[in-house]
Amino acid sequence: MSGEITRVGIVAKSGLLAAADHLDQLASWLRTRNIEPIFDTDTGKLTKAPGDTRSRDDLPRDVDLVVVMGGDGTLLGMATRTALAGRDTPILGVNFGSLGFLTEVRIDELYDVLESVLNGTATFDERAMLAADAYRAREHFDSRIVLNDVVFTKAALSRIIELSVSVGTGLVTKVKADGLIVATATGSTAYNLAAGGPIMHPRADAIVLTPIAPHTLTNRPIVIPGNEVIEVRPQVVSGLEDIYVTYDGQTGYPLQQNDVVRVRRSERTLRLVKAPARSYFEVLREKLKWGERGGRE
């Protein structure tokens, strides 16, 4: 595998000054192994000698591995860019601060993990992604690929919104709520979890639909097979309901009556470099105190 890794992309959370020294050390470590470090343009501003730089959009096309330093939000952005580039470039996420669900490698583990990637002994997680296509008056106007979720929400002053939700060719329900989350198994521990949705193991081939603060108790989260196509239609009746769709919590736009957003499993997947000797359940326990008992036994 070492012969395949000739250029490594390096991305840090915007303005993460705490990463500056680590970025310089990483670049030096790579150069001593005849591997070219390529920084994204903003990250290069944090380093003393950035050398070659690329935009974040172009970076996945030009490297064999991407190292992300920051949090899960920074990694989500690179996951989408990698998928849109049509590449299977693996991502190694390094967390600054508390352990992340996606950026699960600690800074003190970075070089051991990098060595394992170079010598071919690293393990990778293949994470499913979602493809979303939006239509207005039956005309396609937007495409996205996300790792975590597609979320439909109301504006701050809007009343409860209504969404018509279909799976495959059949109507599932009309959701009256503050919103709806369509999440991957990876995204199940993000907004979905905060809204009362279930935790799904990242290898589960499934998609979860979770209403946000539903108007009735009969609107419950539902887990469906990963090969289904979900159609969400906003029901904008009075003009007072402002309904927004957001992608991985990073970008989005308002929807109109008769718009349709179709969500399905993407053909692209994300390859994540796994942290050594730490299972998914260990991450759950550390992040969520999952499985721990409260109070006295």
Structural overview:
This protein is α/β, with parallel strands linked by helices and 297 residues long. The chain folds into 2 domains: 7-123 and 274-288, Probable inorganic polyphosphate/atp-NAD kinase, domain 1 (Rossmann fold), CATH 3.40.50.10330; 129-267, Probable inorganic polyphosphate/atp-NAD kinase, domain 2 (Tumour Suppressor Smad4). The chain is 19% helix and 38% strand. The chain is built from 7 helices and 18 strands. The longest helix is centred in the N-terminal third of the chain and has 13 residues, at 72-84. It is globular. The protein starts with 6 loop residues before the first strand and ends in a 9-residue tail after the last helix.
Name some characteristics of this structure.
single chain; 297 residues; alpha/beta; Rossmann fold; Tumour Suppressor Smad4; 2 domains; six-stranded parallel β-sheet; six-stranded antiparallel β-sheet
Write the layout of secondary structure elements.
Elements: E1 7-12, H1 20-31, E2 36-40, H2 41-44, E3 53-54, H3 59-62, E4 65-70, H4 72-84, E5 91-95, E6 105-106, H5 110-118, E7 124-136, E8 139-146, E9 149-154, E10 161-167, E11 170-177, E12 179-183, H6 191-194, E13 206-212, E14 222-225, E15 230-234, E16 243-247, E17 251-255, E18 260-273, H7 280-288
Parallel strand pairs: 1-2, 1-4, 2-3, 4-5, 5-6
Antiparallel strand pairs: 7-8, 7-18, 9-12, 9-16, 10-11, 10-15, 12-13, 13-14, 15-18, 16-17
